[in-house]
């Protein structure tokens, strides 16, 4: 029965997530709507440029890799900051909760959702 649930979840995961109002709200909050949003997502570009200009590495490839690493890390930090500012849960937390609820419902009724 667990295996059947996992198969059903994989097949219907996207539809279940997209029909959840909280998921829609979280996804909508990731869209860039204000100047502050543009600033938060511009910071990784600035970090990469600073690393490229001040990098102590002698080789160009290492400079670019350091710039990419800086951009990825600062992007992750900016997304975390924006999530904290908006007060939304992360998509992975919400997905985990929805999967748990669907699992409980499946065990009771044999269906993923009503």
Describe this structure in words.
The chain has helices at 2-18, 21-29, 35-54, 60-86, 91-109. The protein contains 5 helices and no strands. It is mainly α and 114 residues long. α1 packs across α5 and α3 (35-54) packs antiparallel against α4. The longest helix has 27 residues, at 60-86.
Keywords for this structure?
mainly alpha, single chain, 5 helices, 114 residues
Oligomer state equals single chain
- Uncertain segments: none
Distance between the termini: 18 Å
Radius of gyration, rounded?
20 Å
Sum this structure up briefly:
With 114 residues, the protein is mainly alpha-helical.
List the helices and strands and how they pair.
Elements lengths: L1 H17 L2 H9 L5 H20 L5 H27 L4 H19 L5
Helix pairs in contact: 1-5, 3-4
